[in-house]
Amino acid sequence: MTSLDALWDFDDPAASEERFRAAAAAAGDAARADVLRTQVARALGLQGRFDEARLLLGSLTSNSPEVRTRVLLERGRVLRSSGESSAAEPLFRAAAVQAAGAGLDGLEVDALHMVALTLEGQDQVDATVRALKRARSSTDPAALAWEPSLLNNLGMACSGLGDWTRALAAFEEALALRRTAGDVGPVNVARWMVAWALRNLGRTDEALARQRELKADLVAAGLEDPYVDEEIALLEGGTAGP
């Protein structure tokens, strides 16, 4: 059975939508087909086709705990994407409760991470920490896989409060986990985040050294990243600072 992650390309939700539609049509199990259709709805939401996404989610009839959880999650994501975060929050909380009751740890952590994204300031930091603790308390690989993303989110939430020391610690921990996983793209993003936090802490020499190292690795791989170039230009120009 093909995993949902294998069908996703978040940079191309339209193509992802078509893959999920085809997989749902070919699914031999009704509950599995509805799981796949929840991801069609998510892809529609990412394209701004909110009404279509809502209609599709409302048409799903499976009583499977996974389907019920995913319907709550995707209804919440559609609301948040359409600018209604306050209305999305209770749906994400309900999805977390539903997932917890069904032993779906990965979906529970997903829902908790979405709750955090509907909040601001210290509330967002606290909610992200709760999601991170839940992920770390699980033995489910789907839950544990959320750890680096949650650490990145924690770093971003802390940076929003100006707590760059805590942000750097979260970004460094996320980088260590990304390196262990070995996926170069996420590793490079995590490297950039660490250097960005160093700059905002006033540790500009370290930040520049790390961005230059990242730039060299990108060039060697035949890649470019304008955000790396922007940071290097800022640091070399002598105007960088917290």
TrEMBL record:
Q: Which UniProt keywords apply?
A: TPR repeat
Whereabouts are the TPR repeats?
148-181
List where the protein spans the membrane: none
Q: Which InterPro entries match?
A: TPR-like_helical_dom_sf, TPR_rpt
* Keyword Ribosomal protein carried by entry: no
Reply yes or no: does the keyword Lyase apply.
Answer: no
Q: What is this protein called?
A: Uncharacterized protein
Please report the organism this UniProt entry assigns to the protein: Cellulomonas soli
Q: List the lineage, top down.
A: Bacteria, Bacillati, Actinomycetota, Actinomycetes, Micrococcales
